[in-house]
Prior knowledge:
Elements: H1 11-27, H2 36-57, H3 62-88, H4 94-127
Helix pairs in contact: 1-2, 1-4, 2-3, 3-4
Amino acid sequence: MTEIKRFEDLKCWQEARVLVKHIFLLAARGELAKEFTLTNQLKRASLSMMNNIAEGFSRYHKNDFIRFLDYSQSSSEEVKSLLYVIRDLDMMPEDKVDRLQKQCEKTRKLTLGLLKHVKKTLSEYNRDSVREEELKYELSTDTNWHLPEETVD
């Protein structure tokens, strides 16, 4: 299993990034360029997909990561729904709408897969009760703090 150290390494984030690029490029062309309200919401929802993955990844608690992944996958469905409006109003060729909707589905599936994985690891972690190791506290005559160098000015 590959260790992920940066959100940029997540496949769901990479696919969301591809979708954001296509949405922004298409929103600037043709009839869509005149539809500020629709394109603004479409762009915001696609950005939400990508940025919630990144923000969740940077959270300290796994429950927060799960919550942000859920926001991301929900935003994917919002983008997909907005694309139906574009299709219904004939603002873009159907094949382009289909490709964008498929990209939404792909990104959502990857995001849900990651969400399920994180949830599973969280439930496995919580299966055993968390206990503090038994520590022996002793009085010491040494009054110096021994802190890692990077924490000291």
